[in-house]
## 1
Amino acid sequence: MDDLYDLYVLGVIEPDQAREIDAHIVDQCDYCLQHLHDAVRVAAGMSGLADQVKPPKALRRRVLNSIAPQPSLSRWRFAVGGLLAACVLLLSLLVWRLNVTQSLRDTVAQLTEERNELRSVVTLLSKPETKAVQFGIADNKPHGRVFVNASGGVVFVGTDLPQLASDKTLELWVIPKTGTPQPAGLFRPNASGDSVNVWSQPVDIAQVQAVAVTVEPKQGSAQPTTQPFLVVPIA
Amino acid sequence: MQKDTSADGAIADRLRGRDPEGLAMAYDRYGQMVYSLFVRVTRNEGVAEDLVQELFLRVWNRARDFDVAKGTFGVWILSIARNMAIDHMRSAQARFQSRIRTIEPTDQLAFSYKPKEAESAIDSARAVKKAFSSLNPNQKKVLELAYFEGFSQSEIAAQLQEPLGTVKSWMRSAIGKMRSAITGVEE
């Protein structure tokens, strides 16, 4: 009977016998526990039955290395990785800030330009010698006003202007009674077809026959390349 | 017989203190024994090396629980080594998949082993080896098949083509001599 404990410890006992001993272990049976402990000693001692073989010398180092703390390389890797991530984050933040700053500068410049134009318009409109000419009064056709001042230049205020392809622009012309048309500024209407164009150059009103608008290439033209879709007589 | 227990106590003491030198001492004392055991069971030196590494890693991870005073370290490491070897063979061979039981539960039994007095697993191994030499060939054969191959008595009977009762008789007498060599109690 006692050899069953040895077979149990060796794990070669039959299942039904193992279950019986399991139950005694659960019950803390003193007799079984003592015999099992003896069996543990016997099983451990039986390891001496194997013929002794010298392990390779490298195995000792391998075993000891397996519990050695990982060299600080991993910590360095972590630190360098973290530093790189922080640099990338900072760089991204910097680029984003630059983009935002540039965008704000563009917006401020645009608003400043529009403010200056409006100031010019207000100044020009407030002068008593400014000549105002209304054009086109029908809906869905370009209509608006042209203001001409000898020292202040020409202000064009238009509504229902045509929408343009991205490579086109509108160009304002001052048509003299004699001679060639004089370019007076490039402008594009907004989505509603509205636009204000200010040309702040002195004008000899007596010599101006009309103001005209043509569609030109995006960069503008020195002379009209298309027929004017709008001609406003000034004389 | 002079008991060789102080070394086990020193190893356990250092291991409990998480001193890597304790593991080096454990390897120097038991490395060859467990490697020989793994080679004998697996018949593969590469696998034996892997198992040695895994075994000492287990030792390191459970180091805090060793009883310094009782000198149980040797019993534990040799018991676990044998169980690891047999479990490795069983998991590697399909014919073992449905048989008997895993040995893992007896690991805890080895770990909870509390002798009444200090003793040395190495001394026990020497005593067992001496006693083994006195066994007859049949007793040696059944003991080796059980210990190194993990065969049950019925499997041994089938392999040797001997009656189960005969195998049990050989096994009982073989184990009895092993036990008396260690405990000093005649069967």
## 2
Amino acid sequence: MILLTIIAMGLALSIGELPWEETHFETLWSLRGGRALLALGVGGCLAVAGVLLQALFANPLCEPYTLGVSSGAALGAVLTGALGWSGLLEGIAIGPLFGALLFSVPLLFGPQGNRLLLMGVLISFFGSSLVALTLALSDVRGVSQALIWLLGDLSRATSSGAITAILFGLITMLWVRRRHAELDILLLGEKQARSVGVPIRSLRREILITSSLLVAVGVAFCGMVGFIGLVVPHAIRKWQGSAHKNVLPMAWLLGGLSLVLADCVGRGFFSPIEIPIGVVTALMGVPLYAIWSLRSPHA
Amino acid sequence: MLEARNLSWCQSRGALVAGVSVTVSLGEWISLVGPNGAGKSTLLQVLAGTLEYPSQSFSGSISWQHQDWTQLDSRVRASRVAYLGSELESLFPLRVIDAVSAGQFAVVPGQQRPRSSDLRFALSFCELEGLQDRDLATLSGGERQRVLLARGLVQGAQVLFLDETFGKMDLDYQFELGARLQKLTREGVLSVVLVSHDPSLSGRFADRVWLMNQGRLVAEGQPDKVLNEESLSRVFPRASLASLFKSE
């Protein structure tokens, strides 16, 4: 899979207006390298967050955006957009970052189990309504940038920001991986986990903090890229089994790989028109996954 | 070994368990009998520690060999008492062997363990050798209950709380696994507290019986002293049940 990722990175560099032969590597790298690296980093963050949240709730329908952290990010984006402030720092959109972090706070003090899940979904609706309110009250031009961002946008990538995203995802993944045994047991449900002595309270807090940070970083860099965080964990589990020792690093890699490929498609297919990457991941992911999932007893 | 004094567990609607004092000694089989909603499951979960301590709902005291049970690490508790319910499922792909070895999480390094905690012993005890690589989702309810029991053994717990854990198993499995567990209790390596709605199973293996109603322990003692017409009719007023509980 590492090999596949390297091939995908090469592909990402070569797709576009300028062909390989006529240009120097440096030129290509400066145009597309940061972007490809960012796709790699963000895809990894989202996939790992998906793995963690699905395990926490023992629910295959969970994904990084289920808990409403992302709607906080969306709110941050349209608010800063409406105020006419772009707020970029090394490719990180400050508004969404703060929105996401703010919306993840109530989860840490919230109830348990499915009630927490319900609360996350409610927070998500609340956030979306505030986004709609902001859109209704502000003028169109300021918000159009925010709308592009909402569909996923890698165009503001910088190499250093992208490397930050990759390292952040990788380190967080490796750190949370030390609790792989607990995560495996959570797949049997919270009740079973308690019964074998898993300290649910501290584990839940750790997973919520970790996954909220991963989502916040992911969306702050490139907006709402859907589907990676839902499907990549399932694909890995179906392929490799459910042991988180392997699932976490594999998901991190496959998440990055998928997003790099999706970006290639988004840039190459209707070139020179660029399709928002969130649209590509969903349009490609849904049919692929539907076909695959019909052949298995699990979701 | 495990001793509870004046244990209560209250919720906004009232006490689910009210002032119960019980002890479990090593090597005994206790059948816990009572009508629906009597507080049987709550009592066992509070005792096992799978409902969180500390909690405002909780009052009374529990001790394990004179140590404060509620202060122990959850993993240590799970290596001494295993609470097994009636269901084991997952919406994710998991093999039987994964679910059984989940019990090893409770294994505390350096602590002496009974041989029942050996993975192979547990699988053969519950006759799961042929199923160990099967996906949990492809098993029947009764087969999954055998997986659950195997996991409880792997935890290495000296006390097994079996809360309707036999409910969906074939009758011959219920009695054979019951007999195998009874053998372990006779050897003095295990204690069992069984909740079952099947009177023949409850009556058959019990050394002692706890009879619960409305959150309280209403009678406790040897089977023939508790499972008689007089005390049973106070708890189950609709039918005469004493003859069903007869053990051989």
## 3
Amino acid sequence: MILGLWRYRWFILKNALSELRYRYAGSALGVLWNVVNPLAQIVVYTLVFSNIMAPRLGAGSTPVGFTLYLCSGIFPWVAFSECVARGANAFVENASYLKKLPIPEQVFVAQNAVSATLGLAISMSLLFVLTVGAAGGLSVTWIGVPAALLLFQAFGFGIGLLLSTLNAFLRDVGQTVGVGLHLWMWATPIVYVEDILPAKLQVLLQYNPAYPFIEALHRMIVSREWPLAGTWVLMLAWASAAPLVGYLVLRAGRVEIRDVI
Amino acid sequence: MSETAISVRDLSKRFKLYRSPWHRVLEWITLARFVRHETFWALQGVSFDVRSGECLGIIGVNGAGKTTLLKILSRALYPTAGEFAVKGRLVSLLELGTGFHAELTGRQNILQSARLLGFPEEDVLRRMPAILEFAEIGEFIDQPVKQYSSGMFVRLAFSLFAHLEPDVYIVDEALSVGDIFFQQKCFNKFRELRRRGCTVLFVSHDMDAVTHLCDRAILLSGGKVVSEGDPRSVVHDYFALMGQSSGAAQGQWLPRGGDEANESVVEVPDAVRRQLENGVPGGHADVGTRAVEIVGFLVAGVDGRAGWSVTSGGTLRFWYLVEAREPCDDLNVGIHLYDRRGILVFAVGTANRDIALPRLAAGERILCVIAVTLSVQPGEYTILPQLGGWRGAGDVGVVYDRLESMPPILVTRRLSGLVDPFYGVAELSTEIAWTRRAET
């Protein structure tokens, strides 16, 4: 799998880059929209949550503090769900290439993952600027953020890979993914603070594979602490298990994928 | 001794046809204990070799498995069984243009396609001037390809293809797109590539091109290689197959077997009878099942005298003495006529004319005559007499017997005044009239 991806690294990178470039093709601001969009999100969250929601959430949250909390969860989640959702459709969407060219299947899933990661890099950079500027200076724990983000994206790539194979055979998978991701997002403390959950539900969070990633990010960005070693281990486990399982399933279905898409 | 560029061994491809995607899930869950699919073998035990620098023609009717074979060789599909090896890089014209993105410019698309095929960018950049010159697109090269005419699109694709210089090319029908001048240019480029020692797989329905450009050919039918060898003989087999399938496939011709009222009254000259007993000229082709056999064959003029030559516009009679080895009720007696380039000029059989031959018991004989007026260009023609049956496997029918390696028929010039009576391949029924009264 790695070899196939490596051989097509330029294809993946160029396509991911040109996707960022052409997503807003035809608009006056063009590439700038990649920056404007997350910026607008940050502003909206700050306004809405600091003035309307924050008082209800209590826990001594400052306006910027809650924005930080929200964005440090939402941006990675958006990129992760893009990996999963677009990954699931990668084979079906690129059927015209797959049916005629000797490109390894995983290339298309990887291309989506890389493009999502690039978008994530932009929005997280903005968040970084916000922290430095408004939320009281720099914290050394930011060093760990890229690592956590990359692991999260690797996890998303793995799930995308797994779903893309299944979706090739059973299109309903692709339809289910949207619903599933939505439920998953609300099962993860991204928009809300985990303290507001009843204790019973908080225990269940341990079984949510996305939880360690979000928790680690919250710790490093919001509370400026290092995540526990156990969290890192969990992240690493998920980030390597998902692509491995995805690859094994792809290998099992590979012979027929191009026949059915 | 040249080395092998492509070797294919027992290659098979099975497609599973599910009526519902859930049936596949059911199979997964039950670990294939419940089988809920029908299988379709697009390729079955295909084996062949292509030597380095050789041009192999691949022919067959639509659905014979040509495309599946090419897709497997270009690694776009995985085979179900068997193996193949391709030495060096392979580029297929099938693929070209598929990598083109409508919004990108011609230049960007060239680079994109090269990346898609896994070619290094520097190589393509170096060849860019040659690619652009060959494609004749001019300043449009920096416009998005969605603004291209279909001709420009194909020219760009072919140009890129021709300049990538892989070790093995797969050339398909795409070569016959574009105007005649570009086509000729493509063929010239193609010949140049061959001179440089490229190995080529050539897939075409243009039998003339196959006979002229290829060193060898294989004929696919129903996913199997049914004929292999010299392009001319393989092309013969192809037409024989086509002739078989055309009537039978559509089920237009159903014999009313045993209809004695149908029997035409044929006067058989004694000389013909005698000579038919002498057996057949040439030999029996390997393809037939020989359930029904041609035991005597004779070409004769209208006077009944044997002769292989005729004046253009004259009539020849092809006499068949047919004997059934096994009972048969779907007999089709026919003749094929090919010109020197291997192009099928004319083929006809009892099935074409809706003539039902009687049901034959084992050992029974019938005599059949096909009279053909050869209103064709003077020259040498080869004939291929054949007995077929419409009830064969698939839609191609079955070949009972076929004669081959016969001397050619010579059609000589018909003199009528100073000029030839017609020009061209064949004389079509013509009437010419005139009047002085040009005004109404």
## 4
Amino acid sequence: MTKRLLLTRPDHDYATRYLSAWAEKFFDLAKKKGCSIIDLRRERANFKEVESVLQKRKPCFVIINGHGDDDLVTGYKNEMLLRAGFNSSLLQGKITYAISCRSARVLGEEAGQYENTAYIGYKDDFILIYLEECRTRPAEDKLAGLFLDPSNLVASSLLKGHTAGKSVLRARQEFFRNIQKLLTSKTKTEDSSILRYLLWDMKNLTLCGNGDKKI
Amino acid sequence: MDFDKNKNADAKNPIQYDDNVKDLVVARLETLPSGVVISIGSGKELTKNEAIQSVKEGNETGQKMMEIEMSFLQGLKDGILYDEAFAFN
């Protein structure tokens, strides 16, 4: 049976444009691994479409790119997609990775309580540093890559068949490798100054629920 | 490893920092490369100068910048980079 991957990719501001552009980087891997991608891009990243796909097409893996808060994640123009105490049960039996602020605190904790469910997210603000001059071509921004490559590793590790727990560990290792790169003497002092934000994201990347689950 | 030194701080009600911390964080933000944008929280995007200004004003974003900085400095003091290196190697 074909595995389905649901992806939301709003792009109504610079941060979501970066997440959306960088999410395309694991499309090839997903296809290679036999996954069918349900790509809800731009205005399609809305509550109605997300709920419908989750109910009817039953993806095993959900990736939310967008903004968020303790109890929710949002889509295009910050429309609520999933909220604790409202529709988190739609994530039951799935692995979800939310690249958004703080949603692991309440929404992730709640979703992680469901049987055979894993929710990976950030328990505080997800910080992304990017270059102003690369705003119009985010996929080429190497500075942003220091943050988004480790983040993408969660998804690519899961696609390669690793468990949710192992995927989080590998992503944190990648964050740490980037931190180490910035600590070397070859790196300019001003570039090293961003490592505090990498450390912040690394420590806030969290797994809720079943760490042994695979897609 | 305990990352949560500020466990009691809520994301929306961060610890209030004094002026000494504010000055320290401003000085450290000055070391950021120019031309970078910091995306923090839901849709907040700050240039280096805007980040510095937010810390000086002590607004919600500035408080978060201070929390991140202090978490990093506290982590260094506690040897977090060594702990991580040990854990991952």
